[in-house]
């Protein structure tokens, strides 16, 4: 392969190629754009850019600088780090060919604009190409590959595209700072020397893995009952960041277009090379295994018939000085969401969340019988008890209310199980207690279909390889579930909502489609995650117009329609390379959407979990039943080991009093800052002046003149 880079540089009249005089800008870089805060420099042969802050003189490099070379002898990795864009090529069944601007023959031409440039690139060997638009707008750098610029003229295809994969990189521990990753609520990877401890870094698909391509697996259970593998947290938002804290410069990157088929990559030093780097990797086309017959005895590996049809765009929000930390990142992302209509203020009035399970099913003789855990009458009794003990508001999600029990899905109409009192009793429960500020929401798992209870022949999703998408487990009663086709989900939910709201009730808790998107095939046509997300977004938007809608762990593109966020993770997946967990998503959403935790009664360390909720501004949740949870031992809900109301009654009352007082102090204020002020002591500052100190240590600690008892929190107004 030729190692020389073939270039064709075309400059239009008015081109702003200005040689740099700055000491930290190599002479071969020319200034091509300038805003009030930054200058943008370009090295044309490798499309390498440098961002210089005009106030403090600090810079961010997008490719490897010669002075940072640590003697890497691997030409492939050197070429990767010196190229402003890196692709992979698919030839036959192989998608691992690296395509870059250093080691691969290419032609690149430039057109200069008022605030940047457009680079048109053709890779000769593979006969494909694309254009990259780079523009500096104030404190933001926008990098985009327009969909219409992508072309493939031969049997070689574009597999992935990584834009500026070294943007803001650092060498070993040469810089103080961290990479921010959207793992769960948020986590940081420090830019210290990792001593080669890790073979891999963070590489997670935005909005979770694509079930349309992955093979279904069976859960691994201990003693045929307990799940031994914990799923990692999903990437809820298309963001990542790099921060050089000593230099007071960094960025929050937002993957604006193409995020449904992109992954966040954050690799600490020691993972292949001695550099810390984070970026977005876009999937343009994938290869997959196609069975040749129903028995799967023969397979062929092939590429998708069509590529991604979307712009690929990353917006770098550049942060300096006092904003150059993860608090600044969170504020920047919140303001971005608000400015673009992606985050709207909901009612943030405090309500403790107490969910109830209605009915389940267990095997009995030749049929399944109901296991009734909480009737409507019993819920009324518990509500009255809580109300008389000072709980004057409540949010309650009623699960397993539908005829057939919790796992009779999908729910096609508003018909409650007779074992809990029937439809009229559920309607009366909702309407009567709404007047007392107790909001009861009906739970609707809208993704799954139970083939033992419903005919799934025409509704079930098939993967890209045309095999049915099945979720299997070794649980009691029901072991297999299918996904419902997105357009069928739309029809089913429309009918359900119509029958529900006709009864004068409209509180709905939606799950399933809120945290899943996937590729699939139907009637000989392939549908991508873009198609799936668009359908789900339309479904949620339409339902939000007709109901009071709360969503279970929703992805970022649905936040605008959520009146509450259920099951907000308080931590991360706890990967070994993660150095610190931060409540990033909570910082973004606090003051706009009320957020509710996972269930308190299933937490091993309830004291620490309570403090994490206070720190993150997240409200507590309980999952309870009137009857003893031992009754569930032969149902699919056998993992609910402690749910009896009598056991947690006093806890609900105590949590309600404590968190209500904190909520009254913070009201609908935003979190302005989050700081680690001392080992084990964190400080949360709200924009209304309220400060909350959280002490995770066993002993009383005094910081900033405030004494916080061990394992407690203190609110300072």
Task: Describe the fold and architecture.
The chain has 717 residues and is an alpha+beta fold. Among the domains are: 1-167, no CATH class; 669-717, Immunoglobulin-like (Sandwich), CATH 2.60.40. It has nine helices and 48 strands. β9 and β10 form a beta hairpin. α3 (376-388) runs parallel beside α4 and α5 (486-501) packs parallel to α6 (529-546). The longest helix is centred in the C-terminal third of the chain and has 22 residues, at 645-666. The model is unreliable at 1-15 and 216-220 (pLDDT under 50).
Low-confidence stretches: 1-15, 216-220
* Sheet of most strands: 11 strands, antiparallel
Helix percentage range = 10-25%
Number of strands: 48
DSSP summary: helix tally: 9
* End-to-end Cα distance: 67 Å
Strand content: 25-35%
Rg calculated over all Cα atoms:
27 Å
Average predicted confidence as pLDDT = 93
Structural class assignment = alpha+beta
Counting copies of identical and different chains, the oligomeric state is single chain
What does the overall shape look like?
Answer: globular
């Amino acid at each position: 392969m030729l190692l020389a880079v073939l270039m064709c540089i075309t400059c239009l009249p008015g081109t702003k190629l200005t040689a740099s005089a700055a000491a930290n800008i190599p002479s071969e870089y020319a200034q091509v754009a300038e805003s009030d805060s930054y200058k943008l420099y370009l090295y044309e042969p490798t499309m390498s850019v440098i961002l210089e802050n005009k106030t403090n003189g600090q810079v961010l490099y997008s490719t490897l600088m010669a002075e940072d070379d640590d003697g890497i002898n691997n030409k492939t990795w050197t070429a990767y780090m010196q190229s402003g864009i890196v692709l992979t090529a698919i030839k036959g069944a192989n998608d691992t060919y690296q395509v870059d601007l250093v080691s691969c023959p290419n032609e690149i031409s430039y057109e200069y604009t008022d605030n940047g440039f457009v680079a048109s690139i053709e890779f000769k060997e593979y006969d494909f190409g694309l254009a990259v638009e780079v523009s500096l707008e104030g404190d933001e750098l926008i990098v985009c590959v327009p969909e219409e610029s992508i072309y493939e003229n031969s049997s070689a295809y574009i597999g992935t595209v990584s834009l500026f994969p070294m943007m803001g990189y650092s060498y070993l521990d040469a810089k103080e700072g961290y990479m921010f990753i959207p793992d769960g609520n948020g986590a940081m990877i420090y830019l210290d020397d990792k001593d080669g401890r890790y073979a891999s870094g963070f590489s997670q698909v935005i909005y979770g893995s694509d079930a349309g391509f992955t093979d279904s697996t069976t859960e691994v259970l201990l003693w045929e009952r307990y799940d031994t593998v914990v799923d990692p947290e999903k990437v809820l938002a298309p963001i990542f960041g790099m921060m050089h804290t000593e230099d007071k410069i960094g960025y929050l990157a937002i993957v604006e277009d193409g995020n449904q088929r992109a992954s966040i990559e954050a690799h600490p030093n020691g993972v292949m090379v001695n550099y810390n780097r984070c970026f977005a990797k876009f999937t343009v086309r994938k290869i997959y295994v196609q069975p040749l017959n129903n028995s799967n005895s023969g397979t062929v590996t092939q590429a998708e018939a069509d590529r991604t049809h979307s712009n690929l765009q990353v917006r770098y929000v550049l942060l300096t000085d006092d904003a150059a930390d993860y608090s600044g990142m969170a504020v920047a992302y919140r303001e971005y969401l608000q400015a673009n209509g992606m985050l709207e203020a909901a009612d943030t009035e405090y309500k403790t969340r107490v969910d109830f399970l209605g009915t389940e099913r267990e095997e009995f003789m030749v049929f399944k019988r109901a296991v009734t855990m909480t009737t409507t009458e019993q819920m009324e009794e518990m509500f009255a008890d809580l109300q008389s003990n000072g709980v004057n508001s409540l949010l309650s999600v009623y699960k397993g209310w539908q005829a057939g029990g919790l796992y009779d899905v999908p729910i096609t109409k508003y018909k409650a199980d007779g074992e809990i009192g029937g439809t009229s009793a559920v309607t009366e429960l909702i309407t009567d207690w709404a007047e007392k500020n107790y909001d009861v929401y009906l739970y609707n798992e809208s993704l799954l279909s139970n083939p033992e209870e419903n005919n799934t022949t025409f509704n079930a999703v098939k993967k890209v390889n045309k095999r049915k998408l099945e979720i299997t487990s070794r649980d009691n009663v029901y072991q297999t579930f299918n996904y419902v086709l997105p357009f069928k989900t739309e029809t089913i939910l429309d009918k359900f909502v119509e029958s529900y709201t006709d009864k004068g009730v409209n509180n709905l808790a939606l799950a399933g489609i809120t945290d899943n998107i996937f590729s699939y095939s139907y009637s000989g046509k392939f549908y991508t995650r873009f198609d799936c997300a668009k359908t789900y977004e339309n479904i949620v938007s339409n339902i939000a117009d007709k109901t009071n809608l709360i969503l279970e762990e929703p992805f970022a593109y649905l936040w605008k329609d959520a009146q509450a966020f259920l099951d907000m993770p308080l931590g991360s997946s706890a990967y070994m390379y993660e150095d610190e967990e931060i409540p990033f998503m909570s910082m973004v959403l606090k003051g706009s959407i009320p957020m509710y935790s996972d269930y308190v009664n299933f937490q091993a360390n309830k004291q620490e979990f309570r403090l994490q909720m206070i720190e993150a501004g997240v409200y507590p949740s309980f999952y309870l039943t009137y009857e003893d949870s031992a009754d569930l031992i032969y149902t699919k809900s056998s993992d609910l080991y402690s749910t009896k109301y009598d056991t947690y009654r006093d806890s609900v009352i105590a949590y309600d009093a404590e968190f209500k007082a904190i909520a009254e102090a913070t009201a609908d204020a935003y979190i302005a800052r989050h700081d680690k002020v001392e080992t084990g002591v964190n400080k949360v500052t709200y924009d209304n002046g309220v400060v909350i100190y959280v002490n995770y240590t066993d002993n009383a600690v005094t910081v900033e003149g405030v004494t916080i008892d061990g394992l407690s929190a203190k609110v300072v107004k």
